[in-house]
Design goal:
Blueprint (H helix, E strand, L loop, with lengths): L5 E4 L5 H12 L3 E6 L11 E4 L5 H15 L4 E4 L5 E2 L7 H29 L2 E6 L12 H21 L4 E8 L6 H4 L1 E2 L1 H5 L4 H16 L4 H13 L6 E4 L2 H9 L5 H11 L4
Parallel strand pairs: 1-2, 1-4, 2-3, 4-6, 5-8, 6-7, 7-9
Helix pairs in contact: 1-8, 2-3, 3-4
């Protein structure tokens, strides 16, 4: 393959990351995937390495291994992430820190680790997986949305700062897809038991989980990421998912806030 790239995909042991890493490998690239635990290389040939995005030392160790073996790193797909559901008022400091440290700070740590190599090479591409929840805040997913809003702002600023060095930054904003994210979501016991929030929370979560179970095929997202990887001039922002969600995310900025809030409350059955 003439334009074979050296690619790192974080959070590649399951879900979006696993599917994306496999498709990139199938397309002829050399792909490294990360997992918090020691994991064998995949049958497709994705080279799995241990890396925890909340641990700076493990990030540098993983990046150093790739540079040592390949001499360069062309593209990074920042996919690692977690989710917690519950009322914002009831979230503990530990829950908030865990959510933000993984989804936002983890991404910034990876970027800071790879940027020196990309600057030296005079080129590179970083694809940050955000969410439609980083465009439209989702009730009872508040700190997940906050982490993704942070990813959005960081990526916009980094796109300008990295541009003079030939480094391109991309944002991918998925809506609902059929992955194991639903099963792996952490749910706040305090919110479930709460006399004021409990019933509304359960009703809202039922809507969220049904939408996720009926979501788009994750291969659609993987193909979108592959397109960005292989594009000479990739789009900065890619919103992808069920048609209605994509349309709502795109028109949000031109609609009155009161109307947006009404639609969100109605959709998630909050009254």
């Amino acid at each position: 393959m003439a334009n074979r790239q050296i690619i790192l995909v974080t959070g590649a042991s399951s879900g979006f990351g696993e599917i994306t890493a496999s498709l990139l490998k199938k397309n002829g690239h050399i792909v490294y995937g990360t997992s918090r635990k020691e994991t064998a290389d995949t049958p497709e040939g994705v080279r799995m390495i241990r890396m925890d995005v909340t641990d700076t030392a493990s990030i540098h160790k993983a990046i150093s291994r790739i540079i040592s073996e390949q001499g360069r790193l062309d593209t990074v797909v920042n996919n690692a992430g977690v989710g917690i559901s519950g009322a914002l008022e009831l979230a503990t400091d530990e829950e908030i820190s865990w959510q933000m440290d993984t989804n936002f700070m983890g991404m910034t740590r990876v970027c800071s680790a790879v940027l020196p190599y990309m600057r030296k090479a005079g080129k590179g591409k970083i694809i940050n997986i955000s969410s439609i929840g980083g465009i439209i805040a989702v009730p009872f997913q508040g700190f997940y949305s906050a982490s993704k809003f942070a990813v959005e702002g960081y990526s916009e600023a980094l796109a300008a700062e990295a541009y003079p060095f030939g480094i391109r930054i991309c944002l991918v904003e998925p809506g609902d897809f059929k992955t194991n994210f639903t099963a792996n979501r952490n749910v706040s016991p305090a919110t479930l038991r709460h006399k004021d929030y409990g019933k509304t929370f359960i009703r809202c979560m039922k809507v969220i989980e049904e939408a996720e179970k009926e979501g788009a095929d994750p291969i659609k997202l993987a193909r979108a990421v592959c397109k960005l990887v292989e594009a000479e001039k990739p789009a900065f922002r890619t919103i992808i998912g069920p048609r209605g969600q994509v349309l709502f995310a795109k028109v949000k900025r031109i609609l009155p806030d009161r109307f947006i809030q009404y639609i969100v409350r109605t959709f998630y059955k909050i009254s």
